From TrEMBL, chains A, B:
One of its GO terms (biological process) is tRNA modification. It comes from Blautia liquoris. This is tRNA(Met) cytidine acetate ligase. Its main location: cytoplasm. GO terms for molecular function: ATP binding; ligase activity, forming carbon-nitrogen bonds; transferase activity; tRNA binding. ATP binds at residues 7-20, 102, 171, 196. Its EC number is 6.3.4.-. The gene is tmcAL. GO terms for cellular component: cytoplasm.
Length: 404, 404
């Protein structure tokens, strides 16, 4: 049995994701594709535009065999912790052979080389990292410069391979982190990459079959649904149109009042107790509170040269969701859904997994899952009040099971 | 100088309130009327329909000389604590001669007699109070039965004076509590009462010049503004119409998401740490959370025979506003506004007051005012996000000063 893992957000699911799954299956000869997917909150530091069970359903309908939830603290972390959390789930399953990620490059070797440099942190890397941060560079920018210098030093004839473009591409950044995490875990999972065919990650173009998730989110939020049918798989379209009809797409601005409420209750010092909430940002947040209008406006207001917008969003979201710095890892792996013909995969996982696989939360020990439960029940609450519908309780949502 | 105090909510201000001020001035020969008014939250356990500075302005335009804020923990308390908080402010001023309250009865003597019984708690009162509560009666209902029996015992020929109607009328209940509080403080302030001319407190009739605040709130929330001009003083109408235009009337359902967020973060035990939050209610609140739809729907859902709706609202509001059981009394008296020709009154208060009178929060020691500041800034936040306008900071709102 060959099993290939994919780490994803599917925010929302589109043609590019379906293509990646298809290519991953071909490239690795996989019998099964296991997806580790962000739950109700994503790495941009915002709620996911659609709740996770529906996103899992879309993935299962388009080629996935099993979808597992990435706990909220990893899903809303830096690329490094996002990757660590997700890779550790794939590794804990004990059955995964390959980890396949989309990249703007398409060849695995530079990823392996770069991950090696970052994990070893040679002196020239460390020195430049410090220098650039002192100059006021954000961590990602400083990291990138330091990496380029160290790469040129290690591979003197190939320094042009590591362009700024390469290191800025979000999928490449994540790819490097996946490989670092695999190395740190001494995992036997083999990394490989599928070349992303078109359109940049952040591009807002929608004139081909492949548009970025950013572009599709924009279409959805602006209710421009007519282009949609060319950009997402046919069998996800009905679900998307239902969401559109029910006004149930979620954005960070649906959390504006909760953010204000949370900030009003905290001193700058208290804010720094949340995950990834730097002191300078906490001071600015408390100091600018009287200019607060909405989540997105406030996040933009807090932006400076040395911190990214997504980092700010994540910090603010952590304060709303009470995600603090203590490590909380659920004692089990949460299944969001599977295809019925993937039962042999589930049987194999049951034998090999380092953490039990759980489908029904009601039967599970929830002590270690509290953080995720709160975050998701809050997501349901915001959605329900927004769309004037009844709230569902996370524990009562059934597992998505797709008949083949 | 004769000074008369009035305790009020003005939620919103209407003809009955103007009439009460006029009568109070006549009855006591007052040179000045001092109002102690609920701030942004009221005794029904909800946000005030209009923010406090505008309500203060309306009162000043219609006969008041000085408006002081009743701190939020008293404004959202039982009749007893509401009365205690408000009376202690009037008493601390050191210049108030009379306390005048509207009542459904109109004569002061039964109030004095009843307050005397309640303060002394004779055995027959205590026994019946206990018995009725054991039977599942709410405290107000049990208190009322016990009081009637004790009154009949003390004034054997006049037991019919103390009808159930008398004891159920909200203004009478408050009147009794004002007098109890005056007695407890050994205050020299003399209580007197103005007879309310028409329409019950909770009546929704709007066919005379005097409608209840409940009826007027309903008209405002349903945007039926055409009857309004007969029910409120002429010079408050423009302000009310502005609020109507800006969609800035507030109800407890504007706090639905905040309530859900707060409840999701608490165990039943933790909820009981808030002011007036009984254990049985806390258990029901946590146990019914999956049926939550809105503040008002949830409050109705939690209703049982032994607790009133306003009590439930107040408990829920205390959880949102972080109002706990510890006594927090601001070290100063907060002025919301005054008439310019009341300067001699301010001078007299400056000499006699037991707590300093503060107009500008920015210049005041806010350590003891934290609870009120949070509650009001939250009110402004909810209002701003609801009406898509900029939030104001409570500390920057200027004192209302009315030229004569």
């Amino acid at each position: 049995m060959t099993v290939t893992g994919i780490i994803a957000e599917y925010n929302p699911f589109h043609n590019g994701h379906a293509y990646q799954m298809e290519q991953a299956r071909k490239m690795t000869g996989a019998d099964y594709l296991v997806i580790v997917m962000s739950g109700d909150y994503v790495q941009r530091g915002t709620p996911a535009i659609i709740e996770k069970h529906l996103r899992a359903k879309m993935a299962l309908n388009c080629g996935a065999d099993l979808v597992l939830e990435l706990p909220v603290r990893y899903a809303t972390s830096s690329a490094r912790d996002f990757a660590k959390g997700a890779v550790s789930i794939l590794n804990d399953l004990g059955v995964v052979d390959y980890l396949c990620f989309g990249s703007e490059h398409g060849s695995i070797s530079p990823f392996l080389e770069i991950a090696d440099i970052v994990n070893k942190e040679p002196n020239c890397y460390k020195t430049i990292l410090k220098e650039e941060q002192k100059k006021g560079c954000s961590y990602p920018a400083a990291h990138q410069k330091a990496l380029q210098r160290a790469y040129a030093f290690t591979y003197p004839n190939r320094e042009s391979d590591l362009s700024t473009e390469f290191l800025c591409a979000p999928n490449n950044i994540l790819g490097i982190e996946y490989i670092r995490a695999l190395k740190e875990l001494n995992s036997s999972i083999i990394p490989c990459t599928v070349h992303r065919t078109s359109n940049n990650y952040h591009s807002i173009e929608t004139d081909s079959k492949y548009a970025s998730a950013t572009a599709i989110r924009r279409l959805l939020l602006e209710k421009k649904s007519k282009h949609l049918k060319d950009l997402v798989p046919h069998n996800t379209l009905t679900d998307l149109m239902d969401c559109l009809k029910n006004n149930s797409f979620m954005t960070e601005d649906d959390y504006s009042l909760l953010l204000k409420y949370s900030l009003l209750q905290h001193t700058a010092d208290q804010l720094t107790s949340y995950l990834d909430f730097p002191k300078s940002l906490a001071n600015r947040a408390v100091g600018s509170l009287s200019d607060f209008q909405s989540f997105s406006q406030f996040s933009a207001l807090l932006k400076t040269r040395d911190i990214t917008r997504t980092r700010i969003n994540r910090s603010l979201l952590h304060a709303i969701l009470n995600i603090d710095q203590r490590e909380h890892t659920p004692s089990f792996l949460r299944m969001l859904g599977f295809r019925r013909d993937a039962v042999p995969l589930l049987t194999a996982i049951k034998k090999s997994s380092r953490r039990p696989l759980v489908g029904k939360l009601a039967d599970s020990p929830l002590e270690t899952y509290y953080e995720d439960l709160f975050a998701s029940n809050l997501y349901h609450s915001v959605a329900a009040i927004k769309s004037c519908q009844a709230t569902c309780d996370e524990r009562s949502i059934p597992l998505v099971i797709i008949n083949s």
